[in-house]
Amino acid sequence: MQDIKVDFYHALEAATTAAKEAASILTVYAKDRSKLSIDHKSQNDLVSQADRDAEQAILQIMREKTPDIAIVAEESGTSSDLDQAQLAWFIDPLDGTTNFLHGIPHYAVSIGLVARAGTVLIPNTEPLAVNTPIIGVVYDPNRQEMFSAIHQDGCFLNGQRVNTSQSRHLEDSLLATGVPFRDFSFEESYMRGFNEAIHHTRGIRRLGAAALDLAWVACGRFDGYWEMGLAPYDVCAGTLLVREAGGIVEDIYEQEDWPRGGNIIASNKHIATAFGEMIRQQL
């Protein structure tokens, strides 16, 4: 157990500053994508110079403003001291790379901060029982929408408090998802759940940016969202956004404290049980 006093607002300011700086780089590249160098990390897993430059801008700011916090970044890897770290940033400089490379204006910068179980965030309070996202920022440069959240302080969109939807039944709910695109090992079980969802909900959207799917659950545009095979930096910030907006976010397999393994289900509290049962029964 370790008593660490977290300056939440300083950390949030660092994350929002970094997200906007990264977004400005993405916006410049978006004006002429023909000159972008693009590499394939694996099947359908792309990285461009825009990703790399945006990430470097984030890393520079975070190292200057929060030098004692470990970092997990999509393109640069992991801090060497992560195993001993009580706090760690999870950074995705461009969530929705494929959209970006095809000129589809739906992508975001995602930055989340996780505190290890046992950490005392505020003196004279109980330590965290489990690993917990405590800061979350998702910035959509195309709509100039900044989603942000602090542990136990609510979720905000451009400074205005937001909450999850009030939909109480699956048949009245609009869901978001992400189909298998890189790892197809769970394709059959995923498609069974998808088939159930299309028959028992108002509809499904697949927009191609997990961080924004979660942000849109947080502000009530979607009633629920699920996906499998993601990475922790895809879902870290969005997990906190939904939770602070009054929703529920869990690991689909109910094995992790937050969906670090990338198998995520999120929704408002009213449909959470029915939604979870519908998806999990097909696994």
Automatic annotation (TrEMBL):
Residues annotated to bind Mg(2+): E74, D92, L94, D95, D234
GO term, biological process aspect, one: phosphatidylinositol phosphate biosynthetic process
SUPFAM superfamilies: Carbohydrate phosphatase
Record-level Gene Ontology MF annotations: inositol monophosphate 1-phosphatase activity; metal ion binding
Cofactor: Mg(2+)
Catalytic function, reaction form: a myo-inositol phosphate + H2O = myo-inositol + phosphate
EC code(s) of this entry: 3.1.3.25
Keywords associated with the record: Hydrolase, Magnesium, Metal-binding
Record flagged with keyword ATP-binding: no
PROSITE patterns: IMP_1, IMP_2
EC category: hydrolase
A Pfam family of this chain: Inositol_P
Protein family: Belongs to the inositol monophosphatase superfamily.
Record protein name field: Inositol-1-monophosphatase
